[in-house]
Amino acid sequence: MKGCGSKRTVSTMRSIISASLVGSAFLLAAAPAEAEWHPYVIRGGVSFSFTAPDGLKAENTIYTSATAGQRKAVVFASVEDNVEYKIIVVNFTGGGDESALIKEATTASQDRSKVLMDEDARVDSSYGRKITVDLPNNTGRAMSAIFFKDNHLIQLRATVLPGGDYRSSEIGRFVDSLAFYEMRSEESPTELTLPD
Q1: What is the DSSP pairing of strand 126-134 with strand 114-123?
Q2: Which of 137, 132, 145, 88 is nearest to 112 (CA)?
Q3: CATH at 91
Q4: For the chain, how many structural domains are there in total?
Q5: Residues 132, 80 share a domain
Q6: Alpha helices (H) in the chain, listed in sequence order
Q7: Which domain holds residue 22?
Q8: What are the phi and psi torsion angles at 144 (to 5°)?
Q9: Could you tell me if 9 and 88 lie in one domain?
Q10: Fewer CB atoms < 10 Å away: N or C end of the chain?
């Protein structure tokens, strides 16, 4: 009788393990797929690199500066897991005070927001600002890096949208990935070109 009971126990354990493995496989299959992150390099008047999720889309726009007027700009953006990732590149060729433009962009990023962090930042030999704010009316939290390089204002901004995870490490990963050289990676960077 002892041998019969142990066979049932082994058989029961196998059934539990099999059910557990099938359940785990089902949960993994049902989990949403996360976008892959890739290195990107931007060229055209200014060169820099960063990492971001797949699916960046470009849009030409106009940036209005109180001190330097309207300027051509390009916004590269994607949304992943309730976080919007944006790279804004503004062309100030022909004029513009670097410090004033960084200060102006910093002030605009803080407009009507609760400032959680505002500090000096450096990337390579370039000076800039790093800011984190809670947006007005509980519409999210944004972290930005604002720099000026080769007559271009460059902003990396990650905005956690309502329902997103404010503690996500991905927002810092994105903002801190800015480099004014082509990053070394096992994967070749995707090249994005600025218009003339």
Answers
A1: antiparallel
A2: 137
A3: 3.40.1000
A4: 2
A5: yes
A6: 2-30, 98-110, 170-175
A7: 1-31
A8: -130, 150
A9: no
A10: N
> Please, is 89 exposed, middle or buried when counting C-beta atoms within 10 Å of its C-beta (0-12, 13-18, 19+)?
buried
Residues 171 and 90 in one domain: yes
Token duo for residue 161: 């949208």
Q: How many residues does the chain have?
A: 196
Question: CA geometry: angle at 117 spanning 146 and 123, to 5°?
Answer: 35
> Got the DSSP string for 20-73?
HHHHHHHHHHHSPPPPPEEEEEEESSS-EEEEEES--EEEEEEEEETTTEEEEE
Residue 26 and residue 121 in one domain = no
Which neighbouring-strand residues pair with 71?
Answer: 63
Instruction: Give which of 41, 54, 78 is closest to 154, Cα–Cα.
Output: 41
Q: How do the pLDDT tens digits run along the chain, 196 residues long? A: 445 554 554 444 444 444 443 443 333 333 344 568 999 999 888 999 999 998 899 999 999 999 899 999 999 999 999 999 999 999 999 878 999 999 999 999 999 999 999 999 999 888 999 999 999 998 999 999 999 999 999 999 999 999 899 988 999 999 999 999 766 666 788 899 887 6
